[in-house]
Every structure is written in structure tokens, then in C-alpha cells.
Specification:
Elements: H1 3-17, E1 21-25, H2 31-40, E2 44-48, H3 52-59, H4 70-78, E3 82-85, E4 96-99, H5 114-126, E5 132-135, H6 143-153, E6 164-167, E7 186-190, H7 193-204, E8 210-212, H8 216-247, H9 251-258, H10 282-290, H11 298-324, E9 333-337, H12 352-362, E10 366-370, H13 394-398, E11 402-405, H14 414-420, E12 424-426, E13 439-441
Parallel strand pairs: 1-2, 1-4, 2-3, 4-5, 5-6, 7-8, 9-10, 9-11, 11-12, 12-13
Antiparallel strand pairs: 6-7
Helix pairs in contact: 1-7, 5-6, 8-10, 8-11, 11-12
Length: 442
């Protein structure tokens, strides 16, 4: 048995016996649920994050993500196997390192993998034989092998022999009633067969099924395909919504009719734009990478054009609806309902609601918002609104010229909202069963 095989066997035994320590870098919507799963499976977990506030809250047994109750964090702490920290030198005390950091776009809609690169550089300072490093952040094919590996191998250690390198894309669906971190099959790709064996062994302890693939590039590409598939189909129904609107046809009724076909059709739904960290961003990672191969991704770019144009369509519908009632958008008092990018969560990343607020303010409107899951806004890469959620009362509703339903939270009483509002612009068909001349679909 060679040295590399001995190192691998040692790691595999540590994983099987739960003596291996798992390090999770980035304790957000992906990393924190993952830490919970590995704790539940009997591992010791070190959670790493640059945000000292997150570390402090976790140590106090408190959650900062709405759909993860504080009771789960407190329970994780009680095991004595969870150590949240901002001290990255403690990477040297881990055996398996999972990277869950952001991969946004820059101002030119190009991939920004600086978080991944900087994290890799940090890991390289503490890299030792036997380490497993797995990237979960969505990125373009080649990031793991071509960008991360050279940084790690500058230490003199070799991937597949001295340490193990893998890619396993996250598939989180925040606040899903049907799926959780552990019940979603997990694609796993390794730099080498030994890398795949190590990563697959780790993830098999935590999820219902692993899906091993031949390389990290296949795993990276699979994640992009998943989200490009959704982006293109959402763009299709968004375009049809605008087309059918001119024809006087209700797109929501059309979709309900079409989805009765038991084969060959999957329902996608229109909205005011795309939100979340995945669908608005991930397709452009492939678009950017494809240019290296002199390939133009027409479907992806057209879908992006349609989806990014949806907030502007909604604005025009609001302007038209106000004009029909003799009211100008300038100085109009507007209330936007729902700041998060999808219903019943507190995640506002890339939410179209943020874009709508900015566009409305640029038109001279006075805009406020309500969201039961987002009590106040925080500073983000592209937005710093400095706003707080206003109470949703009968008195408040009556003072606005228009109420805009941007996110269809289950907590909203839509009959109450329509009854007490002068005008409702509904971008989500949340008022679909309510008949009122106050309602305008957008």
C-alpha cells in the first residue's frame, strides 16, 4: 500500500468512525444547515465565518435564519460537538473542509470567485496530508481543478495523493416542506478517483443518496444546468405573461390548464423578476466561461434579458393602473408587500422587490414595504435601502394609493388587503380567487 492509499484509508476510517472533524466555511443559508446535518450524524463540526455577529449568536444558541429555529442551534450546542469561530487558524484541527461561500456577479455581470479564491488561500496556510476539501459554491466548470488546486498544491502537497479535492454543489431549497439538506440527493465529483472516494464517503454519512460523477467539472456543470433549466423556463412564462396580457388572456389560468397534461409538461410560474442567489446569477457563470471556447450561449442570454426586464414591466403596469385612476406615479404613496425573493423566507438576496423599490423611487414615488419575515433591510452589495417594515393594518392600507404584491407570503390575508386598499397590483396571482375591480395583474 502506497503513502497516498494509507492517507486515504486513514481519512475513510475517521469518517466511518465519526472521529474526523468537519469544518464548514460560510455559515449562511447553505453552510448552517449542513453543519446541523453533520452534527446530527455524530461528527464534530467547526463552523467558520468572518461575521463575528453570526458567531456570537450561534454561541448563544440563537439562529439568524428564520426557517432554522433557535432550538436547533441550542440543541447543536448541547452536543458539545459544535464550535463556531472566526479564527481560521483552527482549520488545521479539521479533517474535512466544506466551502460554502458566495459566488456573486460583479458590476459587469462576470463571475466573482474572489470569496472562493481567498478561502482557498486561507486553507492552503493550514493544509496538511489527509485533508479533504470540498467546494459547494456554484461556479463555472474548472474552478475546483484549475483555480483552486494550483493554490493548494503550492504547499508542495499533491491533490489525490496527499490531500483530496472535490466539488459537490449545494441544492438547498430554503423553508421547503418537501425537502431538506439530508433528503436531497447530492452530486459529488472528485479531482481523482481517490478524491471522489473520500468526498463520497463523507457525504454518504449525511444525505439520503450520493450521485458520484466522473469529474469535478461534470459536477460543476450539473449545478449550472439545474439553474439554467429553471431560468430559461421562467423566462418563457414571463414572456408569455406579457404576450397574453396584451391578448386579454390570464396566464395563470393557461398554466393551470396546461399542467393537467400528465406527461411532457412541467409548470413554471411568472413573477416580477428572478431572485435568490442561484437562478439570477448562475447561468451567467456558464455564459462567461463559454466565451473561452468561442461559443455564444443564446438561450441563456435571452432568458437573462427577459427575466431582468420583468421589474420594468411591473413598473409600467403600476404606472398605467395609477393613471387609469387619475393618479401620477410621482409623489404616489405605495406599499410593497414582500421583500424576500420567495414566499415564507427571510432571504432577500437578488430579490426583485429591491429593484422595484429603487425603480419606483426613481419615478418619484414614496415607497414603503411590509414583510413579516424581514423587519428591516440591511446593507448589501448593490442595495442599501435603510428601510423598516411598516405594520399591515386597516388604517395603514387605506393611506396608500397602491399596494403591490411582490412576494406572496402565506401570512398575508389577501381578502383583507384587497378590501382595505384603493388599488392592488398583483405580480404573483396571490389574489387569484378574489374578484375585485381594485386588482390589476402584473
Amino acid at each position: 500500500m502506497g503513502k497516498g492509499s494509507e492517507i486515504l484509508e486513514g481519512l475513510l476510517q475517521g469518517i466511518e468512525k465519526r472521529t474526523a472533524t468537519v469544518g464548514v466555511i460560510g455559515l449562511g443559508y447553505v453552510g448552517l444547515p449542513l453543519a446541523l446535518v453533520f452534527i446530527r450524524e455524530g461528527f464534530r463540526v467547526r463552523g467558520f465565518d468572518l461575521d463575528e455577529k453570526k458567531i456570537r449568536l450561534l454561541r448563544q444558541g440563537k439562529s439568524y435564519i428564520k426557517h432554522i429555529p433557535s432550538e436547533k442551534i441550542a440543541g447543536m450546542n448541547k452536543t458539545g460537538r459544535f464550535s463556531p469561530t472566526a479564527d481560521f487558524s483552527k482549520i488545521r484541527t479539521t479533517d474535512c473542509i466544506i466551502i460554502c461561500v458566495p459566488t456573486p456577479l460583479n458590476e459587469y455581470r462576470e463571475p466573482d470567485i474572489s470569496y472562493v479564491i481567498n478561502t482557498t488561500k486561507t486553507i492552503s496556510r493550514y493544509l496538511r496530508p489527509g485533508h479533504l476539501i470540498s467546494l459547494e459554491s456554484t461556479t463555472y466548470p474548472g474552478t475546483t481543478d484549475d483555480d483552486m488546486r494550483p493554490i493548494l498544491e503550492k504547499t508542495g502537497l499533491k491533490a489525490g495523493k496527499d490531500f483530496f479535492l472535490a466539488y459537490s454543489p449545494e441544492r438547498e431549497d430554503p423553508n421547503s416542506k418537501d425537502f431538506s439538506t439530508s433528503t436531497i440527493p447530492k452530486v459529488v465529483g472528485g479531482f481523482s478517483p481517490n478524491c471522489l472516494k473520500a468526498a463520497d464517503a463523507l457525504y454518504r454519512t449525511a444525505v439520503v443518496q450520493t450521485v458520484p460523477v466522473s469529474s469535478t467539472k461534470v459536477a460543476e456543470a450539473s449545478k449550472l444546468l439545474e439553474n439554467i433549466y429553471r431560468a430559461v423556463n421562467i423566462a418563457l412564462v414571463n414572456e408569455l405573461k406579457m404576450c397574453f396580457d396584451r391578448m386579454g388572456i390570464n396566464i395563470w389560468e393557461v398554466i393551470q390548464a396546461a399542467r393537467t397534461k400528465p406527461f411532457g409538461f412541467q409548470a413554471f410560474y411568472p413573477g416580477p423578476g428572478l431572485g435568490g442567489h442561484c437562478i439570477p446569477i448562475d447561468p451567467f457563470y456558464l455564459t462567461w466561461k463559454a466565451r473561452e471556447y468561442d461559443f455564444h450561449t443564446k438561450f441563456i442570454e435571452l432568458a437573462g434579458e427577459v427575466n431582468t426586464g420583468m421589474p420594468y414591466y411591473v413598473i409600467e403596469k403600476i404606472v398605467e393602473a395609477l393613471n387609469d385612476r387619475g393618479k401620477s406615479i410621482k409623489n404616489a404613496k405605495l406599499l410593497l408587500l414582500g421583500l424576500s425573493y420567495k414566499k415564507d423566507i427571510d432571504d432577500v438576496r437578488e430579490s426583485p422587490s429591491l429593484k422595484l423599490i429603487i425603480l419606483l423611487q426613481q419615478r418619484g414615488a414614496r415607497v414603503e414595504y411590509n414583510d413579516p419575515h424581514v423587519p428591516k433591510t440591511h446593507r448589501m452589495r448593490a442595495y442599501d435601502l435603510g428601510m423598516s417594515s411598516v405594520p399591515l393594518t386597516e388604517k395603514n392600507l387605506k393611506k396608500y394609493d397602491c399596494v403591490i404584491i411582490s412576494t406572496d407570503h402565506s401570512a398575508y390575508d389577501y381578502a383583507f388587503i384587497v378590501k382595505n386598499s384603493k388599488l392592488v397590483v398583483d405580480t404573483r396571482n396571490a389574489t387569484g380567487k378574489i374578484r375585485s375591480k381594485k386588482i390589476v395583474k402584473a
